[in-house]
Hints:
Layout: E1 3-6, H1 9-17, E2 23-26, H2 30-33, E3 40-48, E4 54-69, E5 79-83, E6 89-90, H3 102-107, H4 123-126, E7 131-132, H5 135-145, H6 160-169, H7 171-181, H8 187-198, H9 201-210, H10 221-224, E8 231-234, E9 249-252, H11 254-263, E10 267-268, E11 273-275, E12 281-283
Parallel strand pairs: 1-3
Antiparallel strand pairs: 1-7, 2-5, 3-4, 4-5, 4-6, 8-9, 10-11, 11-12
Amino acid sequence: MDLIAYWHPDNYWPDLERGAGFHYNSRQPALHNRINVGERLWLFTKVIGATGQTEYRLAAMLVVAAKTINRPGYKYGPYRVMGDVGKSTYFRVDDQDQNDLFDLVRLLPLDTGNAEGSNRYSLPQRFQSIRSVKPEGSILLEKFAERLTLEPRARAVPDERILEMAVYLGQKRLQSVLRESSAQYSDARTDELMAAAQDRSLVDKLRRLYGDQCQLCGFDGRVVYGVEASEAHHIVYLSRGGDDSLENMILLCPNHHTVVHKTLAPFDYATLAFAFPNGRVEPLAINKHIERTVLYKP
């Protein structure tokens, strides 16, 4: 069954300005328990309309490609759904021609009634708990979304492999990649990426930890060919808002790095494994720095 949730603007805007992640995080197990791969997560947020009144806009529709667990202590909660980038959509919430979603959301048929009776200020509280949408409600959301303008910034991101390599090669190359990609990152995000391009100590630290060994298969280019071949991979992509931190990086051989990117295989911190779309699951064979997330059941 599809889900609907309120995306607080303090979280929505940074996600868009850091590179639309096409994922959503929560502290609520419902984000995993009530939705299956292929179903949709509808997200709405709050804006100030042209008249100065609070309005609600449809922010995104994510077609779930995977459900993963975030790293320990992740500030937005342990549960994550990854949207299929090819099928999911961000809508332009600052388009003044977009209709207010308030009445539709308030009257949507949900798994337990609807939110009728909510006022404009209580609606976010009514949807702090993720809600399941009945099929007829999903149809109403589909019809509403047909008229909306798509958010171009969600697509204006560079290719992740190219961006990773540019960060490794330095600020001059990174500037060129960002300019060529028409990436619309915020100034703060651009500064973060430039700082990462200037300081490659994290990659050096990874290589000191693992030599040249791939953490998935153990391949060591130095032993086989006499040259270093390993590459640093960002678990949550830099192009999609991921941070340049050791907890977000894994050392991979070129083959595994290519396959992970081509399949968009997500990494799960609960199993310490990549899950590939064909059903193959590959856990880390070597690990000295990634901490497993343990979820405690009440």
